[in-house]
Fold these 2 entries.
Entry 1:
Amino acid sequence: MPSFDVIVIGGGTNGLAAAHRLQTSGRKVLVLEQAGQAGGAAVAREFAPGFRTPGLAHIANQIDSRVMSGMDLGRHGLGFVTSGLSSTALSATGDHLVLEGSAGATIRGTISDADRKNWLALRKQLLSFAEVLAPFKQLTAPRIAKRAGNEYGKLARFGLNLRMLGKADFREFLRMILINVYDVVNDELTDKRLKGLLTFDATLGSWLGPRSPNSLILLLNRLAGEGAGQRAALALPKGGMGAVADAMVKSATASGVNLRTGATVDSLLIEDDRAAGVRLANGEEVRAKIVVSAMSPKTTFLKLVGPRHLDAGFVKRIGDQKSRGAAAKLHLALKGAPDFRGADLKSRLVIAPSDDQVELAYNAVKYGEVPKRPVMEIVIPSAHEPGFAPAGHHVLSAVVQFAPHKPKAGADAARAEMLENALAMLEEHAPGIRALVTHAELLMPYDIEAQYGMVGGNWHHGELSVEQMLFLRPVAGIAQYATPIEGLWLAGAGCHPGGGISGAAGWNAAERIIREARA
Amino acid sequence: MNVMRNSDPRLHYLTPLKQTPFHPRTAAENRLNDWGPWAGYTTALSFGDTAMEHSAIRNGASVYDLCPMVKYRVTGRDAAAYLDRLTVRNASKLSVGGVHYTIWCDDAGKVIDDGTLFRLGQTDYRICCQERHLPWLLDSAIGFEVYIREETEDVAALSLQGPCAWSVLNAAGFDVADLKPFRMRSFPFDGGELMISRTGFTGDLGYELWTTPAHAIALWDHLFAAGAPWGIRPIGTHALDIARIEAGFIITNMDFIPVDQAVREDRARSPFELGLEWMVDFDKGHFTGRRALLKEKVNKSSKWALVGLDIDGNVSVEGSIIYHNGKTEVGTVTAACWSPSAKRNVALAQIRRPYHETGNLFVEVYALRELQYAKLMLPARMCERPFFAPPRRRATPPGPF
């Protein structure tokens, strides 16, 4: 067994990003991935014979620019079929609204002049706020403490950028930063389709409804992302999201990272109160002075480390970290092209009839129930390029919200009910689609947890919400990737700045390790 | 006790203080009706003559009602491992039938409380302490197979202290001649069980007697009948307080503020700052606060010291401010008395480091003399605790006084 300087647990987007960065800093890195293939939520899979689908994530809008260029993903095969995916707010009457350009620079469809004008003003404002916040993703969350190792230069620039907004916009920024998205869209807009789309986007992947406090900041977080190098754009990788996973694996391997798949880590080896390596489920021990966990914080501390090696208050805080997932993933194999009343199948199709409908869909999960009328985001990869389905057939991938992570009705009954309700919504917007379905698969949050290890099925490894952001992410005291166990670092989506196919948390963690750990 | 049992539980506020199982007897003895609250119970501060009660502790046999002491029972497969992680001492090494004094800290290594830990069985422990901690004990149980139950109301306990304590027990029919300090033994009693531990809070020869409320009155009557020839006497908290100061023992919320109750951030104290570092076992594996305490030890970053003081004169100095060189404020007296046993004017004090090593300390006292204060600046010397330590406290078998 060759020796390694660093072991990275978990070969998802963040694990691979951290591994690559650490390897290129001169360390020998081993990545241990439980699944048969590295790439985590970006990995594509065949869910029915001849039908391939993105496993979880189906749109690239958050890939970190440092990961993109640092790992040279383009050279390792990542291209895009489009970096300007439009969004269609579907109407059950065919009166769709299409937002084109990054974050809906232009709107096609029947909409009042006032709404069109107000949307452009709101969009400009939101984008300017997102632009200010975006650099935060690429630095370690600051701490209010002496010798916290804060990146004061970058923080000063952030302060400057805030002031550069000008007095009026700065005041608006302060007014809006912690507000809910429902109030914002209702202050400015009247069109139900547009308000439905915006509130859907804000709450995508969260455990918040549009009216929940602080829900606007998630929309800003989304707009602060990049698709194919363009702020707030939605991109589709050539060959599907699986191409992101493939390119990251290739790049990491090319840089010298050792990647072992099918390797389940059972526990952290702790000697003299510091990390000494890991023990695998098969009993094998692999040793390294630095262990980086890209797993959920809960999994890392409660399972791999174990409460006995940690302080009681800390264990309690980790246990209390909120990690409820409410996004289900729907995959349909279709024997023909669905017709969403004329909508462009190459667009991102969103069924969120109104802001109230999004809120109502959220209400159900608060009580562990399945919403009668779920809302969803649909991508049809097979409409963009061949290779996803047999000729003439199609694959539909949808993120359906909101799905209870702990349903009162039980796992199987809730899954069946959620599938039925989702199909009914689809049928309402694309008459005849049910007759085209040859295979259907629905992953509820608990299924996602079982397959991907994301606690609660939350794709951020812990809810992304204001009280769990920045220096409070994943919990207070460990927001700078270091942990109470010397030599053990966090690098997963549970850390700042959260998940999505991004790699930012992993890259940030690697930078921190390079700076702090002289090993 | 149990006055509420058959009435509406919503009326609990009408009796804000509970009575202990011994109340019928303590109430009859309390000639001055001198009561004070302790952990939700009404308890005797004195029975009429504190000096005589203290004298019973040091010269005869005294009985103190221990019932309000908060008690938790920890059982289950991981009980020892759980207590090793909770407290700073090695609970696994404590043998069955043994007792040790211990403390527990929060993540930052600040003391939450102190108490005594009784190992009743291989997987059965009892914690006795001053404050209530169920939420913390339950939080600490995450990841351990343990069962934690508060049993304060299920245990009736008396402390029998004084040079004649062994003679009283002997006369009462309990053979504890070979029972060493910090060991315990059970006896059948009154159709139930009586557990006797050689423990106490006086620094003298003494025992604590543990049974259930049903046998409480029988125990009291039995002890007082057997102890009459030795002048056995009930004592209140005032007398005990003098004895514990003489013994140099500290009390939570009197000599330090527990970190979970401290409102002011700088009031929290580490074991190093309370003179309790001797019990911290850094080699037993991880425990809550270990990393913080190790850092404090390595960096020598402790800010306070808890010390014993010997002060000129005979004016008790409780609550006084301590000065270095008569000018610089460096600490506070947390407990003090004129010690009748040591014939010294003694105090426990928190002193800001490094003044615990410099000497040249003074205590500022305002002595009230017939409605007028005399301001005194009394020289104080650091000294070892305990201030009074008779060899009989450890002698086995104890002598028949």
Entry 2:
Amino acid sequence: MIKTDVVIVGAGPTGLFCAHQLGIIGLKCEIVDNLDKIGGQCIELYPDKPIYDIPAIPKCTGKELTNNLIKQIKPFNFDFHLNDRVQELKNENDRWIVKTLNGKEFETPNIIIAGGVGSFEPRKFPTKSAEKFDGTSVLYSIKDKTIFKDKSVVIFGGGDSALDWAIELSNSSKVTLVHRRDEFKGAAASVNKIKKLSENKKINLITRYSIKDVKGNGSLEGVEIKNETGESKVVKADYVLGFFGLIMQLGPIAEWGLNLDKKTIPVNTENFETNKKGIFAIGDICTYPGKLKLILSGFHEGALAARGCFKYARPDEKYRFEFTTASSTIKDRLGVKE
Amino acid sequence: MAKIKYIEFNGTEHEAEITNGLSVMEGAVQNNIPGIDADCGGGMSCATCHVYINDDKWFSKLPEKEMGEDDMLDQAFEPKSNSRLSCQLIVSDDLDGLTVHMPEKQV
């Protein structure tokens, strides 16, 4: 059990800057994110797209913004728990017990949800029949490639993940690559390689088809694919892999008893607390009259939520407002010497 | 100004007058029309404002897809050859009478 002042759910720009504000006022925090890297949407959706509306930074990419935010909170040495997801909350004597998917436990008076539009999850096949094989022979990521040796593997998708795995697995498996159109999103070099492998009969390339049904009782036998003119055919498969990118799902947050407005959480604008004491929401996931889904708004919300956490984390102390330019306490926390 | 018809997967129809310059996605969101999520807010970075243009004549009349739209559509729920991202369809008088059909779900 890790005891802390605040658990931040989400390591996007809003969560990161909020951690900075917590560090400045002397609170500790732990940051949990479902992705395997820090930065949220900035790093997953638009790492190379320029952003033009960060105050005092005329232009920076999602990646640059993330790197600078990481640098800004470095002095506080906060721990990140990546590839993990907050799953369950329980209230015990005014303390929240937070459990993650990987079995970590935190005890904290405060939780700040900075979850954006939710956690990133792989997009799955639309066919119901695929569900019963989910995680066994229908997969959306690969942990151990040796299981595919000498097996029939049908891969769906047109991006780099689909192409790279098709190329890699074609060495030791019977690979079929299925994509809904003739063009591919993946890198040109990979596309050329796929076409060459297809010409040499090393892989079976099928375009303009998509999944229709998954066949098999108990164990997977094949996958039925269809085109838009209504023709369909069955391809033998021991494994079916889908690489359709990531979607954002609110996930377990919806089960925590918070008021919800569509996929957002209503908060007050004084300290961004939700209807639950000690649970705050900031950034794209919160809503209030006039809410703007801008990174700069998330920064403001994080600064106020951090102060909101103070009274629960330090009930016997009085919060004192200080400037970073003047406060020697803050400079100590930042480890700067002048 | 254009009158746009949005038809949910279950057949429920919604009609809205959308101001020129807004996207078909924004028109739905501002009028509380369900079925279009627009998680990324119109940045062509997700695929949750996906619609079908079932009328061939309308499909060919729409502004052509920009680079990246088809790549993003690869990640949509059940994309077809008449799929579009509604954040990329900017409303003008030319779009008056357009009907868009929504997929069964966005995510």
